[in-house]
Write a structure and sequence with these properties.
Elements lengths: L4 E6 L7 H14 L4 E6 L1 H4 L9 H15 L7 E4 L5 H10 L4 H5 L2 H10 L3 H16 L4 E3 L5 H18 L7 E3 L34 H10 L16 H14 L3 H8 L4 H24 L3 H30 L4
The structure holds tryptophanyl-5'AMP.
């Protein structure tokens, strides 16, 4: 049977954190066993908000390196920088012609970002480029965290709209969202998601944080009133976030964590969470140290070359459908 295609992307702004890892990257890695996977560092998405131009090339390679250290395998998956495959932006333009501006203005991520940093056309069209990323390769499934659900809905709408207007071309892709870990919360405000753009470094644990930093961040993590370690997102969001994190890093059931730490107080529990996270991230840190910058860059260039060939084959069909074939 023909293998199905998976596509996903990550922005190279800031450092990769445990939210990215638990919400998306762990699935990226697992899916490589059974799907044709295409993974992308979405640099064109990253430049829609303020970014550090001088360090961008470095940040981009850093993100590629972390992903390889997490287990994204360029020998098994197609892995590259989005801007090096121009078919993404060509398809985004075409999809833009069937996207309602009303629908785009209702995107919650757009509204959040525009409120904080001001709007621009790139930020407004961001979800259309994301739809193009996915549809370009006719992806069947897209592993993401909960915050990308609305963008996936738009992608599905656009696939259907394109198919009905121009003829059946795109599969309607399904999101793959994990049951647990799809929305890892900020350590400083457990009612907000952990995010790369939060100015408070203490709000997130980076995949490459050293053990002492992880201990310090978890010690400072905001917990809730009371002292019982029990999963209850309504009244104990801080503790629930830590319980979930511990369960995902150790593979221990939530009920077993509650039984072991329930009445021992928050201090002892936070120390145990820190050790679980440190142990879970240790193999990634050590794989990262063994990766060579020049080799990573070589693999990314090779990935872009392969991706361009594949994308061009698909894109020719789109040009024909819309009446732009030469
Ligand atoms: P980005 O770079 O913000 O995040 C990468 C992935 O991490 C997930 N994620 C989280 N999961 C759980 N808890 C959190 N606190 C958390 N924060 C982030 C995200 O859901 C995402 O899966 N728009 C995308 C990038 C993108 C893309 C695509 C994704 C561009 N094109 C095509 C899929 C398919 C983004 O900004 O992800």
């Amino acid at each position: 049977m023909e293998r199905k295609t998976v596509f996903s992307g990550l922005q190279p702004t800031g450092n990769v954190h445990v939210g990215n890892y638990l919400g998306a990257l762990r699935n990226w890695v697992k899916l490589q066993d059974d799907y044709d996977c295409i993974y992308c560092i979405v640099d064109l998405h990253a430049i829609t908000t303020e970014y550090d131009i001088a360090h961008f090339a470095n940040d981009r390679r850093g993100a590629a390196k972390v992903l390889m250290a997490c287990g994204v395998d360029p020998e098994r998956s197609l892995f590259y920088y989005q801007s090096q495959v121009p078919q993404h932006t060509e398809l985004a333009w075409i999809l833009g012609t069937i996207t309602g501006t009303g629908q785009l203005s209702r995107m919650t991520q757009f509204k959040d970002k525009a409120d904080k940093a001001g709007s621009n056309l790139g930020l407004f069209a961001y979800p259309v480029l994301m739809a193009a990323d996915i549809l370009l390769y006719r992806a069947d499934a897209v592993p993401v965290g909960e915050d990308q659900k609305q963008h996936l809905e738009l992608t599905r709408d656009l696939a259907e709209r394109f198919n009905s207007r121009f003829g059946d071309e795109f599969p309607v892709p399904d999101p793959i969202i994990p049951e647990h870990g799809a929305r890892v919360m900020s350590l400083q405000d457990p009612t907000a998601k952990m995010s790369k753009s939060d100015p408070d470094e203490g709000s997130r644990i980076l995949v490459l944080d050293d053990p002492d930093t992880i201990r310090a961040k978890l010690k400072r993590a905001v917990t809730d009133s009371g002292s019982e370690v029990r999963l209850d997102w309504e009244t104990k969001p801080g503790v629930s976030n830590l319980i979930e994190m511990m369960s995902l890093f150790t593979g221990t059931a939530i009920a077993d964590i509650e039984a072991e730490y329930g009445s021992g107080g928050y201090g002892r529990f936070k120390e145990a969470v820190a050790e679980a996270v440190i142990a879970g991230l240790a193999p990634i840190r050590s794989a990262y140290r063994n990766l060579d910058d020049a080799e990573v860059e070589r693999l990314m260039q090779r990935g872009a070359l392969d991706a361009r060939t594949k994308a061009e084959g698909f894109q020719q069909k789109v040009r024909k459908r819309v009446g732009l074939a030469g």
